[in-house]
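Hi support team,

I've been running sequence recovery on a batch of backbones for a student project. Most finish fine, but this one hangs at about 90% for roughly twenty minutes before it completes. I'm not sure whether the input is malformed or the queue is just slow. I've pasted the structure tokens below so you can try to reproduce it. Let me know if you need the job ID as well.

Thanks,
M.K.
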């Protein structure tokens, strides 16, 4: 009974929980006190409480309840009128069946205020104003971050007191069923800072704040579980300045990903929270295109381009191979216009009109006014040329000359000539194979998102001598 578990100190005017583990409603406490204080022997004592609603109460006439005793009350808010201290009442709502597997916890002012003693819904009184001063503006956050389930959290403003619900939506997570001890040992590194990375390989860096290093070993599915491990209930290790169990986003201005604060996983693909990227140099090739990202500037669906192969097979090592852009079955030699040239120390540059598309080989050959030159890299529309291929003074090639960049333009060197590129769009091409002693081979083709493979037909030229 409540009369057995709470003790009244009339001299100090305190109502203290002194025994038992039962949690009573505030209405039950109020009703007991009202029943007690209408006895004849109590008529000279000040009434401890008043009721504004069935869930909103005040301590009056100098009476108080110690903070620790508030843990044994629920389903009602209390204001201590003597010093304007307020205990609001928060309670959770959601699927009882799922919440029954979740141990909830509540954070206030950057720290865990309490963790529920058992799995299931909570109904707690929380001090939000102390002697007239709001604690963290009256804000608290309820967290549901149980291993094996999707996460959720809900921030609420309890500054007005009263009884307020916190909706929690969680579910079993089929992508998070590995034992936590196994995931803890994964060689995945997560760092926070300022990163510029060209994830979509369009020659322009994007900005990020979180870098995930798979160390050439782990899959993005394993990274997903590791990132959940870093932010699960009970994780006190600090990430980005806060305990992992309290982490919500890389920047307060970003939309929160409540189900998994560093990124979700669905359909075999990882979807990163804003500001997160994978370290490309340590990302296994098998994981390319298995994730989509949002950079720090809010550009959505930043993803690696599809890497495809353009190849010509059935070759002789001495064959000369060309695969280049075509239109209507004819080779396109005016794909670009030479806008400017320049000589530097040990290198030269050629600037073309317009940025190069993503499917331009990272290094290869450019033909300008019919002449063949090799380049080692490019940025935007500027190619860095191999100086040994480029004449001093560039007298032979005038600005405004036509230019084009083949996908392959080389000696075969073996039975197959190939190049790996990023898919940008379907491209009509012409493939040519030539060597003295065989008939020139020419075949049309189309580069698709699956790549292109053309088998050369090498027919002996019986006429040449």
């Amino acid at each position: 009974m409540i009369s057995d578990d709470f003790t009244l100190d009339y001299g100090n005017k305190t109502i203290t929980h002194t025994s038992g583990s039962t949690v009573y409603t505030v209405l039950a406490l109020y009703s007991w006190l009202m029943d007690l204080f209408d006895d004849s022997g109590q008529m000279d004592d000040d009434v401890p409480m008043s009721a504004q609603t069935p869930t909103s109460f005040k301590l009056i006439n100098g009476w108080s309840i110690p903070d620790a005793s508030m843990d044994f009350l629920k389903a009602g808010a209390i204001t201590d009128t003597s010093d304007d201290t307020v205990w609001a009442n928060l309670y959770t709502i959601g699927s009882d069946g799922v919440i029954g597997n979740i141990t909830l916890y509540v954070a206030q002012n950057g720290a865990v205020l309490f963790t529920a003693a058992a799995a299931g819904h909570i109904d707690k009184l929380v001090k939000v104003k102390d002697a007239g001063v709001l604690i963290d503006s009256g804000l608290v956050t309820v967290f549901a971050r149980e291993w094996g389930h999707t996460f959720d959290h809900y921030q609420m403003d309890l500054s007005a007191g009263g009884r307020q619900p916190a909706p929690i939506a969680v579910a079993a997570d089929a992508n998070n069923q590995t034992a936590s001890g196994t995931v803890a040992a994964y060689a995945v590194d997560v760092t926070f800072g300022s990163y510029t990375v060209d994830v979509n390989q369009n020659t322009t860096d994007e900005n990020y704040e979180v870098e995930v290093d798979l160390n050439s070993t782990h899959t993005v599915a394993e990274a997903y579980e590791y990132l959940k491990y870093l932010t699960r209930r009970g994780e006190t290790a600090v990430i980005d300045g806060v305990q992992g169990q309290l982490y919500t986003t890389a920047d307060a201005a970003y939309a929160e990903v409540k189900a998994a604060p560093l990124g979700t996983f669905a359909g075999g693909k990882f979807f990163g929270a804003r500001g997160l990227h994978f370290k490309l140099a340590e990302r296994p090739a098998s994981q390319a295109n298995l994730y989509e990202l949002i950079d720090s500037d809010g550009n959505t669906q930043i993803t690696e381009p599809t890497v495809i192969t353009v190849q010509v097979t059935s070759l002789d090592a001495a064959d000369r191979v060309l695969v280049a852009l075509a239109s209507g079955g004819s080779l396109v030699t005016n794909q670009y216009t030479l806008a400017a040239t320049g000589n530097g120390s040990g290198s030269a540059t050629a600037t073309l009109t317009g940025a190069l598309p993503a499917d331009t080989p990272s290094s290869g050959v450019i033909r300008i006014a019919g002449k063949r030159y090799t380049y080692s890299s490019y940025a935007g529309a500027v190619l860095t040329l191999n100086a040994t291929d480029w004449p001093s003074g560039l007298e032979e090639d005038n600005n405004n000359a036509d230019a084009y960049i083949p996908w392959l333009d080389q000696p075969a060197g073996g039975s197959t000539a190939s190049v790996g590129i990023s898919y940008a769009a379907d491209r009509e091409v012409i493939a040519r194979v030539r060597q003295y002693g065989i008939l020139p081979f020419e075949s049309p083709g189309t580069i698709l998102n699956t790549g292109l493979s053309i088998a050369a037909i090498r027919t002996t030229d019986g006429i040449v001598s």
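--
Follow-up from support: It reproduced on our side and the slowdown came from queue contention, not your input. Residues 26-36 form the longest helix (11 residues). No action needed from you.
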